[in-house]
Amino acid sequence: MKSHRINPPCRLSRKLALLSGIALLSSAALAMAGEKVIRTAYGDVASIDAPKSQQLNAKNAQAHPFATARQRAAAKPVIWVDRDSKAGPAASAELTDKLVRTAGSAPGGDAPAFGNYLARTHFRATWDKLDALDARQGAAPDVSISQEKDGAHYGYTRTLGNYYTTQWKAAPWNKIGKLYFTKPDGSGSYCTAQVSSGTAVLTTAAHCVYTFGSGWNSNFLFVPAERYGEAPYGKFGWSTARVPTNWINQGTRRWDVAVIKLTGEQVSGIPVTSYVGWLGRAWNQPYSLFTYSHGYASNLSTQYTNICAGQTYDSVSEGTNVVVQGCDMTYGASGGAWLINYTPNSSAGNQVNSVVSGPHIGAFGTAWVGARFNDDNIVALCTAIGC
């Protein structure tokens, strides 16, 4: 049989064909996950809609895998997986353009004045139980004042969040809650999330919505202001979720942001914003800001939130669009809001500027990181979902 020499153009064609095949395989994998890609001026966003079996209403609410307090208590906090960004001169150079884009923000909003009255009316047994608990609540647990041990050596203070009676019914604490879901392996898990738009959109970490390397999580259920396993403002299902396509492809910290559109409360049908209102958002802000970071950290308590307050900073080891803050919270705090312009008991300020992603490199339990909200992540996501 006569052999034929492959000339350079043929070799190039083969390379192009191989690349096209890889692209087709990737597309096929996305299609198998029931996913579609939304292209925005700020970047591509992966989207998935809730199947009919997960669209909650009064008829099927009790069949949900996280319907009861006991079922929710069995959910395990998401374990942080090392998704470190590439370090080196390139990452350092990227940090130099951190203020090139125009800083922006969106305001938060209050629920109607009768929001708490409405919740107490709809969930009276829960409120009565929490009132009884508050009446016999003892002294607050000790808070921790620590010194961060890596990077810029900024100190931080940890305080209690919605532990207090005066806080779990008020802004910003009542807008932050637990997000429950089923992972691709079938296990139940939870993260922290918060209402961050007047259109009932949650912000959280992408790893709470899409498990890197495995696929989309499912059965999302949000419980705002959850405290001691109780749901004082009800339970909310989901209609659609979005993550950056770069999270699916890379799984690095700068892309670890997600948004979820909530449906009405599973029994009353009322939007979450009518009970608790929503937090503001901020993007393209400086890396160094005084920030209050919230989370249901399992190493402290799964029953209420804790808050780490301190200065954020950038790090060459983490790369561009990643912010670092001293904090000793760990699993379960994933997705929790990093709030700037912190204004207790008010809808003013309280802007989500990042969400908890995982430990700072080499500083587990002393510092953590979050994706710096910017055009590429939160603005693209909000454009795609309608914040």
Automatic annotation (TrEMBL):
Keywords: Signal. Gene3D superfamilies: Trypsin-like serine proteases. Residues 1-31 form the signal peptide. PANTHER family: SERINE PROTEASE. This is Uncharacterized protein.
